[in-house]
Automatic annotation (TrEMBL):
Organism: freshwater metagenome
Name the UniProt record assigns to this protein: Unannotated protein
PANTHER family for this protein: DTDP-4-AMINO-4,6-DIDEOXYGALACTOSE TRANSAMINASE, TRANSAMINASE
An annotated Gene Ontology molecular function: transaminase activity
GO term, biological process aspect, one: polysaccharide biosynthetic process
Length: 371
């Protein structure tokens, strides 16, 4: 292949097993929520070691539903990360709660217990860490903090399917919310999964998802239609079996990138912290002081060289007029996150990269850094 062929930042490849199951579902006539959704829920629950998984129509819905079953009231505060996809914040606002922001660490790009502690008020009800890029936040201290203050934990695990910390999966500490959007590590095109070890919460989630209805025309709560379909679930179920192998590839790719990009001036490669298993949804470097190119010039140069790259995320999540002036958004200084948004750059790490492609990414970045 020529040096110039494009290397995309993500690739969706579903394969024969998906086609087969999808066709089965189409032919079965059961195309809305049915047995394949149940298979998806049960298999994923066993993969991450939780009692219950409830499938919904997307990851944003998963977050909204998690807050709704906790009965959040207007004015109740949720502490989350300022360095996340906008869905995290939109879900908090949709649930009628108020968002506050803890700062992150550059070690894992996630909120720290220390920073959360400084944001707790008497209105705080929920801690919502985001396991960004596929690495779990440091959940031991966050969980202890929640216990100490009587707070609930909702984990935005949209990017962290099967990531672990201290042997426990993301999504197993509180209510876990996963996305199955097209570009996530596991996908149903659009879809979401909610995990919990709490029987009552799982039961309420299932009723909420289906118009608040337990039995036909018996409504227990004001619900909604949050259901996933068997057509969507059929896209995802076969991926569960091959996911461990995909993770092995993502990890090998990340390691090859880390080795190749080590020691460049002003460039900080990502780390997997002790005791955590990273699932490398994104491979994100920081381009900081000392780099011969700015982050944005690096993006332009990589794009020109046919190397897909991304800035996740270019601004703090609240740094837009529609949130800055929103009564549900309480803004405070988050200096680490404010620096990271100016320096972050994600490079391809997806499981279909070849070693040659990784070497080309490495060569190109090293060349840009004058090495
Ligand atoms: C993708 C994503 C979501 C939302 O998931 P959707 O399925 O797109 O609704 C929420 N939070 C984070 C961090 C995400 O990356």
């Amino acid at each position: 292949m020529s040096e110039a062929h494009p290397i995309p930042i993500s690739v969706v490849r579903l394969g024969d097993e998906v086609e087969k199951l999808l066709l089965e579902v189409v032919r079965s006539g059961v195309i809305a929520q049915g047995p394949v959704v149940k298979r998806l829920e049960d298999t994923f629950a066993s993969m991450i070691g939780v009692k219950h998984v409830v499938a919904v129509n997307n990851g944003t819905t998963a977050l909204i539903a998690a807050m709704q079953v906790l009965d959040l009231q207007p004015g109740d505060e949720v502490i989350t990360s300022p360095f996340t996809f906008v869905a995290t914040l939109n879900a908090i606002l949709e649930a009628g709660a108020t968002a506050r922001f803890a700062d992150i660490s550059t070690d894992d790009f996630n909120v720290t217990a220390e920073s959360i502690a400084a944001r707790i008020t008497d209105r705080t009800k929920v801690l919502m860490p985001v396991h960004l890029y596929g690495q779990s936040a440091g959940m031991g201290p966050i969980s202890a903090l929640a216990d100490q203050h009587g707070l609930q934990i909702i984990e935005d695990a949209a990017q962290a399917h099967c990531a672990t910390d201290a042997g426990r999966a993301a999504g197993s500490w509180g209510i876990g919310c996963f996305s199955l959007y097209a570009t996530k590590n596991l996908t149903s095109s659009e879809g979401g999964l909610i995990s919990t070890n709490d029987d009552a919460i799982a039961d309420r989630l299932r009723v909420l998802r289906n118009q608040g209805m337990r039995q036909r025309y018996q409504y227990e709560m004001a619900g909604n239609n949050y259901r996933l379909t068997d057509i969507h679930a059929a896209l995802c179920v076969p991926q569960l079996a091959t996911y461990p192998e995909q993770l092995t590839r993502r990890r090998a790719n990340a390691q090859r990138l880390n080795e190749g990009l080590a020691g460049l001036p002003g460039l900080r490669t990502p780390t997997q912290l002790d005791g955590r298993e990273h699932v490398w949804h994104q491979y994100t470097v920081l381009v900081g002081p000392g780099s011969p190119l700015t982050r944005d010039d690096m993006v332009d140069a990589l794009t020109a060289a046919g190397i897909g790259c991304g800035i996740y995320y270019p601004k703090l999540v609240f740094d837009y007029d529609c949130y800055r002036n929103h009564s549900g958004v309480i803004i405070n200084d988050v200096p680490v996150a404010a620096t990271v948004v100016q320096q972050c750059l994600s490079l391809p790490v997806h499981p279909y990269l070849t070693p040659d492609e990784i070497d080309r990414i490495v060569r190109t970045v090293r060349g840009l850094c004058g090495a």
